[in-house]
Design goal:
Elements lengths: L6 E2 L6 H13 L21 H14 L8 E2 L4 H8 L10 H4 L5 H17 L5 H14 L28 H4 L11 H11 L9 H4 L1 H14 L2 H6 L3 H9 L9 H15 L2
Antiparallel strand pairs: 1-2
Helix pairs in contact: 5-10, 6-13
């Protein structure tokens, strides 16, 4: 489901759920042909009279209901009608529904690189796209962090990461939308891509195409696509995070991204 709880008048109105509904309502404004549509909403996650009015107008003017209670419930006819009104396929606007806290500028920054890199690495099935976007959304904080916030000192001297030279921990800290970490992994990606990221590892975080490409390469290299095609979210999470479940995996958050991605793709 795109939302986890009811949104509208007198509802709990979880901030993420409200943002999703606000984005969906905005993306359906083009359906008000020949009549004045409701005002475009600011997707801020706060319920108010404008959002409730937009729900009511959609239900009565677009869906043709005789009246509206101003509430949308997970799985109800209104939510299905809002999703049905979206453009088909994998389009940029839908990323705002999958990761409602992502800014428009960050979505715009990474959308075209995603279009380029995903087919290159065979991320083409509906389930793979849904799982990949969900994991990407969680790992990058909705496209906000192409480089991990920690200094990288914790990786110093980690032989399992190939960090054998002084300063390797910081030099080869996590970068990319699924974070590449350690000298050994930077070496493997350099060999696979034909570019030298040992001399300039910061490029992976600073260049949007590389930040996406390395995530797609990691996905293909670890053969995660087969796990996604089985719809095995725990196996996908373990391949990326190192654990299938537990407090450090934030599995609930990953699942919420996945539910939204699946709903928009239609699976």
């Amino acid at each position: 489901m795109c939302i986890q709880g009811p949104v509208g008048r007198g509802s709990h109105n979880d901030i993420i759920d409200v943002m999703v509904v606000q984005n969906l309502l905005n993306m359906n404004l083009g359906r008000y042909a020949g009549v004045q549509p409701p005002a475009q909403l600011q997707p801020d996650g706060r319920i108010g009279l404008k959002t409730i009015d937009a729900i009511q107008q959609f239900e009565t003017r677009i869906m043709g209901l005789p009246e509206s209670d101003g509430i949308i419930v997970p799985g109800d006819a209104t939510l299905k009608a809002l999703i049905a009104g979206l453009p088909p396929g994998y389009v940029e606007e839908k990323l705002a529904i999958v990761m409602p806290q992502a800014t428009a500028s960050r979505i715009d920054l990474y959308y075209q690189p995603l279009l380029t890199a995903m087919p290159k690495y065979g991320i083409t099935s509906e389930l793979q796209i849904a799982h990949f976007l969900a994991q990407l959304a969680h790992e990058s904080g909705s496209f906000l962090y192409p480089e991990e916030l920690a200094s990288g000192d914790a990786y110093e001297g980690r032989n399992d990461l190939g960090n054998k030279q002084p300063g390797d921990g910081r030099r080869f800290k996590g970068r990319g939308l699924i974070q590449l970490t350690g000298r050994a992994n930077y070496t493997r990606y350099s060999q696979a891509s034909g570019q030298d990221f040992l001399a300039h590892p910061e490029r992976i975080a600073n260049e949007p195409l590389l930040a996406v490409d390395v995530a797609c390469w990691f996905w293909a290299d670890k053969r995660i696509g087969a796990m996604a095609d089985r719809d095995d979210v725990k196996a996908v999470t373990k391949a990326i995070n190192g654990q299938a479940d537990g407090p450090n995996t934030h599995l609930k958050a990953r699942l919420e991204f996945l539910f939204r991605a699946k709903a928009l793709i239609g699976i």
